[in-house]
Amino acid sequence: MQELPSSVDPARFALCADAIAEAARELALLGWTPATSSNFSMRVNDELAAITISGRDKGRLGREDIMLVDMAGHAVGTHARPSAETGLHTQAYRRLPHAQVVLHTHSRTQSVASRLFAREGVVRLEGWELQKAITGYTTHESVLDIPVFPNTQYMPELVARIDAWLDAGKPLHAYLIDGHGIYTWGADMAEARRHLEALEFLLACELDLRRFSA
Amino acid sequence: MQELPSSVDPARFALCADAIAEAARELALLGWTPATSSNFSMRVNDELAAITISGRDKGRLGREDIMLVDMAGHAVGTHARPSAETGLHTQAYRRLPHAQVVLHTHSRTQSVASRLFAREGVVRLEGWELQKAITGYTTHESVLDIPVFPNTQYMPELVARIDAWLDAGKPLHAYLIDGHGIYTWGADMAEARRHLEALEFLLACELDLRRFSA
Amino acid sequence: MQELPSSVDPARFALCADAIAEAARELALLGWTPATSSNFSMRVNDELAAITISGRDKGRLGREDIMLVDMAGHAVGTHARPSAETGLHTQAYRRLPHAQVVLHTHSRTQSVASRLFAREGVVRLEGWELQKAITGYTTHESVLDIPVFPNTQYMPELVARIDAWLDAGKPLHAYLIDGHGIYTWGADMAEARRHLEALEFLLACELDLRRFSA
Amino acid sequence: MQELPSSVDPARFALCADAIAEAARELALLGWTPATSSNFSMRVNDELAAITISGRDKGRLGREDIMLVDMAGHAVGTHARPSAETGLHTQAYRRLPHAQVVLHTHSRTQSVASRLFAREGVVRLEGWELQKAITGYTTHESVLDIPVFPNTQYMPELVARIDAWLDAGKPLHAYLIDGHGIYTWGADMAEARRHLEALEFLLACELDLRRFSA
């Protein structure tokens, strides 16, 4: 049972939890959350985020599968265990003020692309009309770089690499983790979903093109 | 809110809007309209067409997501913004008197084929029984050429290339835009859908064959 | 409207028509009948078969989309036009006494495999456990040959090639037509569906294996 | 009709049969049980297991399609025929005390991977985050070996090979049979499903990677 701190309006929590659970169910139907993987969160207020509880089947989520964490990634008002990767969600909320929703999925395309581009450290997307689905992009003539970070079970290492990328002032709309999956975000659920859907599509197209030029 | 000009029978507009919304929902389910891309239209009368409003999720369209434009592509009776590519729809209605419905989608197959065949400027389809699904084709021994035009964010440039193709008297049943998607049309929704479905299938088969002959 | 000859029990015709329409709807959902292609039939009695009327959307078939033909392929009791390929269905009923149902589909796998193996004239399947889904096969150590015949719009030519194969005493469980699709059959709808599903699967696996050995 | 021995609580049998039938329907929807292939079982008590009756369409299973077998694989309380591969299920229950559910499917990915890795005799999975979905694995830096055994219609031969692998003390979470499919299991239905889903995903990713490095 989630016990809400007085700073959280129950209606706001319910809205966040329902939006996360609905998105998770729809993304699970696409096969992007295999074997209880993937996690999803939404900013509740300046101090707290709602996030999926670890290990649940993402195709059958309800409100009771969502918990609160503070911006250091600690559980708030519950004994449930947040996902091991909670620190990547809270980092996004700390570093990217416009991010209200963070989505992390594990599709086959995302996993394979992350392995294939791990050595280069980046997937460079160019010449695709659908790059315009990323907020701020207005032409296919732009360049959209998605970094690929090495995987690790020690989250602070990943957090440091992402901090370094941001500290260097490079644009960041999403990132891949090698052999693992993608993280992306948006100013609301619709934008985060649009970013995720566009990136899945673009990575799949890029892999297809490589098959022919190989 | 769409305000109908007196020249438009409300029942006719409703019929067009519902047909467009239904087709959009079904094509979205196939994954051919990723990240709010794609647009669809239907000729309402000699002066006007109904077309999808820009940026809406094509999987959740209703009648209120459809607007009127004149044959120059200007909004009629609404402040909604038509798609940036409206000019390609109205060009089809001006140049191809038999076209009553225009469909533009962005499937992965369409996007990848457009990139792969961009240099040749055309996808040549031969020897497939399903070419007979294109009105006017009666045998697999025919040749079906689908041109691939360079992408641009400046619509008049694209319109001019398509005009040039038509002015040269070459047959045109559909065209691809590089890195982008396909445009096709028909004398009614059923024919336009059949053309789109057949072309998606033929492009996918052609890509598969290339994988083996590579 | 179908007018039934006195030799046909209306209940028997209804049963055949419903079974055909249901199978067509389910196969259309799998994407194996693109753009109104494909056709399906069932033996009604020694002289007649029920078959899909030409050009209908296979995903939306009802009883009224099914007609009767005699074993020479002529329409019986209706002005509807049977499929151009009706002669291949009636040949199966004439030559293969155990065949009660004939299914013809156009999946992408079937179309691509037919092009790829057209020169060899046969797809040879060996070493797959699922060969046992074909009636009469009891081990993966058997050899299952699916001939590939050249496509033609002139049916008697195709009928003659199939007759020649049968006259040579070679086993025939299904055949492909180049650039076109597959024909298979069974002693009832369940067996015909099982054969079709197994062959689609085996052709897809065979294509996948070729991709790696290429 | 299944007649239950006095040692079996009818409610326990009903629970097992319903869980098996539900899993079978869901896996069939994914296309992993083509042409009536595949079989599924659950341990009822120390002496008996519930298992799918041979040859039924896995997409339409109900409680009446499930039967009891003893740990030697003989039918109990029914004249129905258990699957030819029942011996592989009962071997798992005899040798792996934690296994409560055994799932065997035939997806295209599983079949193709089994052929491709048959000569090496094993699929080695390394560097994938999703390896953590297998109980006992806590990092992508582990190695997960899935053996590939030669196919045979003579079950005791397969049983002996699997016994030999276990007797050698090698870890076994699943195995492939060449040209055939996969076997995996779990301490309950949820764990067995998670293992199956993760392995299908990992095999598909591994095949994709091979396409690029070929």
TrEMBL record, chains A, B, C, D:
Pfam families: Aldolase_II. One of its GO terms (molecular function) is zinc ion binding. InterPro entries: Aldolase_II/adducin_N (IPR001303), Aldolase_II/adducin_N_sf (IPR036409), MethylthioRu-1-P_deHdtase_MtnB (IPR017714). GO terms for cellular component: cytoplasm. Residues 18-207 form the Class II aldolase/adducin N-terminal domain. It is an enzyme of class 4 (lyase). Its EC number is 4.2.1.109. It catalyses: 5-(methylsulfanyl)-D-ribulose 1-phosphate = 5-methylsulfanyl-2,3-dioxopentyl phosphate + H2O. The keyword Electron transport does not apply. Zn(2+) binds at H104, H106. Catalyzes the dehydration of methylthioribulose-1-phosphate (MTRu-1-P) into 2,3-diketo-5-methylthiopentyl-1-phosphate (DK-MTP-1-P). This is Methylthioribulose-1-phosphate dehydratase. It comes from Frateuria terrea. The lineage of its organism: Bacteria, Pseudomonadati, Pseudomonadota, Gammaproteobacteria, Lysobacterales.
